[in-house]
């Protein structure tokens, strides 16, 4: 259990106290099954990681450049990213040399140690949402087409509602056919209030401004704003997103409290391009990764942190409204290390 203890001690030392009475800290009432959900959501990534390392060790009887190249290929295949992979490989090589290790079987522990210590370093582990008491908190969701943004909003709304918060939705996607109706269906299923456009083809920024104003007047704790899916290459749509952000700030300079970029985990490194482009338009406060259960490339979590140091707020998996978990670094590490028998020794 040495590696577990070492990693978790580092996490505890990094955790920052956020017990400010003005913050609405989520109780995470779904905690009961959260570890099982992490396990299910990251199953493909874990299996790929474990099987790849075991195969590397089994096929190599000496530690040489070949084994390091195979480790590098594994990390890149997991979408850890070039920069992080190079740093991790260098750290592994240095540790092997320092400890004078010549048994390939022992290298697994070093790989795991360097991989997760790399992620933990300089990380603010606190990924709770920045929600304030006695204030209408605005969470703005955006992303490219097809990432599952509207369903994600429903999942987050359900998650927050289970934390006894008064939630409403704003249907700001006036571009995609059926988008307002889709969000309205979710609102009805969850018994949550929704603010919809008052006229056809209404300007999205005006819908969101009116919706936030209505939410404030009706004393909602949190208002979740949907926006149209937009390609990061479309200048007019990206400028529209900036306009939406500005009108929210006109209502309250401290809002939105969260601006969440929704990324499809299955697209791998393309998600980094999206994060870069959206970050140049609005201040992205966090990432929501969808479809994490459909890929073995969960290493994108490392790449996002490495490139932007943006906190991962939620992991989404499956089609059910409860298929969402607030990101928890300890659970993530436990799941990723599952099935390594030597850790129990």
Please tell me about this protein's structure.
It is a single chain. By secondary structure, this protein is an alpha/beta fold. The protein has two domains: 35-127 and 329-345, SRP54, nucleotide-binding domain (Four Helix Bundle (Hemerythrin (Met), subunit A)), CATH 1.20.120.140; 137-327, P-loop containing nucleotide triphosphate hydrolases (Rossmann fold, 3-Layer(aba) Sandwich), CATH 3.40.50.300. 48% of the residues lie in helices and 11% in strands. It contains 13 helices and eight strands. It has helices at residues 2-14, 34-41, 43-59, 65-77, 82-99, 107-120, 149-161, 179-190, 204-217, 235-251, 270-279, 300-308, 329-336, and strands at 137-142, 167-171, 193-195, 222-226, 258-264, 286-290, 312-316, 324-326. Strands 3-2-4-1-5-6-7-8 form an eight-stranded mixed β-sheet, with helices on both faces. Helix 8 (179-190) links the parallel strand 2 (167-171) and strand 3 (193-195). Mean pLDDT is 82; it is low at 17-21.
In short:
The chain is of the alpha/beta class and 345 residues long. It has 13 helices and 8 strands.
- Radius of gyration equals 22 Å
> How far apart are the termini?
7 Å
Indicate how many domains the architecture comprises. 2
Task: Provide the structure class.
Answer: alpha/beta
- Tell me the CATH topology of the largest domain: Rossmann fold
Helix content percent band: 40-55%
Order of helices and strands: HHHHHHEHEHEHEHEHEHEEH
Low-confidence stretches: 17-21
CATH architecture of the largest domain: 3-Layer(aba) Sandwich
Q: Report the top-level CATH class of the largest domain.
A: Alpha Beta
Q: How many strands?
A: 8
Average pLDDT over all residues: 82
């Amino acid at each position: 259990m040495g590696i577990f203890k070492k990693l978790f001690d580092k996490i505890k030392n990094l955790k920052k106290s956020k017990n400010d009475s003005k913050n609405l800290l989520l109780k995470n009432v779904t905690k009961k099954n959260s570890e099982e959900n992490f396990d299910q959501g990251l199953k493909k990534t874990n299996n790929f990681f474990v099987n790849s390392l075991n195969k590397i060790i089994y096929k190599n009887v000496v530690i040489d450049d070949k084994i390091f190249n195979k480790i590098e290929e594994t990390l890149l295949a997991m979408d850890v990213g070039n920069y992080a992979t190079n740093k991790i490989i260098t750290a592994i090589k240095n540790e092997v040399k320092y400890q004078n290790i010549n048994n390939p079987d022992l290298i697994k522990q070093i790989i795991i140690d360097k991989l997760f210590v790399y992620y933990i370093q300089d990380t603010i582990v606190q990924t709770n949402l920045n929600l304030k008491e006695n204030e209408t908190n605005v969470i703005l969701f955006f992303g490219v087409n097809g990432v599952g943004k509207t369903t994600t909003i429903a999942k987050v709304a359900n998650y927050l509602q289970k934390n006894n918060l008064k939630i409403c939705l704003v249907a700001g996607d006036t571009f995609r056919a059926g988008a307002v109706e889709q969000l309205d269906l979710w609102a009805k299923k969850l018994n949550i209030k929704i603010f919809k456009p008052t006229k056809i083809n209404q300007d999205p920024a005006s819908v969101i401004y009116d919706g936030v104003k209505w939410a404030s007047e009706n004393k909602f704790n949190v208002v979740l704003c949907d926006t149209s899916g937009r390609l990061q290459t479309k200048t007019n749509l990206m400028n529209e997103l900036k306009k939406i952000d500005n009108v929210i700030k006109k209502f309250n300079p401290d809002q939105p409290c969260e601006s969440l970029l929704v990324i499809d985990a299955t697209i791998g490194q393309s998600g980094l391009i999206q994060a870069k482009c959206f970050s140049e338009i609005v201040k992205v406060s966090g990432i929501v990764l969808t479809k994490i259960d459909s890929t073995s490339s969960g290493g994108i979590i490392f790449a996002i942190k490495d490139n932007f140091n943006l906190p991962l707020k939620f992991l989404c998996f499956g089609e059910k409204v409860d298929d969402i978990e607030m990101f928890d670094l300890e659970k993530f590490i436990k799941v990723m290390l599952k099935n390594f028998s030597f850790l129990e020794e």
